Amino acid sequence: MALSKKTRVEIVKLIAIIIFLYAMLRMVLIPLIVSEGFKEFTAGLGFFGYFIVIGYTVLSHVFAPLAGTPGVLLGVTIYGVKIGMFLLYVASLISATVNFWISRKFGRKLVTKLVGEKSMKEVDEFTSVEGKQVLIISRLFGFPIFEFISYAAGLTNISFKNYFVITAIASIFTNIAAYLVFRNINFQSETGIIVWIGSIIGAGLIFGFFIKSYLKKKREELK
Fold first, then answer.
1. Is residue 3 in some structural domain?
2. Looking at residues 57-80, what average pLDDT do you find?
3. Which of 13, 34, 150, 205 could disulfide-link to 96, CB 3.0 to 4.6 Å?
């Protein structure tokens, strides 16, 4: 079956983005991270570095257009995958709480300003099929759109208690899975960084497609 023009355009855009990101990684980010100067700098951050990683990750979730990958990469590079994933977990719980209450208190208008008109589609896909089961599945497999799910939940009727408990428990499983998969990778090497980012992007595409298909199926069931 021939692909539609819109689908072909999206595929081309995706390929272009991947090529651009790979080029930036090889030419800018990776040489910086594996340099001796960067290692000396990060070693001097100490405990304060925790707040930098957590703070940037929270900001990237609240202001959704901001890329969160640098914060995650910084965390695992400086502190290793165990502490790095723990910092990501803490940051995710903070941002999940902030995003929920922003949308619950201020509504769709402010959420649209924070995530952008185009990204509101992700929010709308979730709000159209609200429910505990949907939230659980989305939290387990929807990490590529974590922040959008947080905003969307605030626009539904789910209680904050149920929302937070589901988010906290489900996020533990995803972080443990990431730790088990990447615990033996050397994040101080170029190969390790490429494997990490490549795996995250690949998993994001796969799980993102899964979640979108799942939400679409749920919407059809409600019709």
1. no
2. 73
3. 150
pLDDT at residue 96, as a whole number: 92
Chain centre distance of CA 209: 14
Report the pLDDT value the prediction gives residue 18, as an integer from 0 to 100.
66
Residue 180 · residue 81 · CB < 8 Å: no
pTM over 0.70? The answer is yes
Distance between CA atoms of 215 and 182, rounded to whole angstroms?
29
| H or E element at residue 178 | helix 160-182
Specify if 2 maps to a domain: no
**What's the CA gap between 60 and 56, in Å, rounded?**
6
Q: Are 132 and 162 in contact (CB under 8 A)?
A: yes
- Evaluate whether residue 92 is within a structural domain: yes
Q: How confident is the model at residue 39 (pLDDT cuts 50, 70, 90)?
A: low
Q: CA-CA-CA-CA torsion for 103, 105, 106, 107, nearest 10 degrees?
A: 50
In terms of residues, how long is the chain? 223
Q: Cβ(211)–Cβ(137) under 8 Å?
A: yes
What range does the domain containing 117 cover? 9-222
Does 4 fall in a domain? no
Domain count, the chain: 1
What's the confidence (pLDDT) of residue 205?
74
- Residue 87's nearest CA partner among 135, 126, 52, 35 is 52
In eight-state DSSP terms, residue 130 is: -
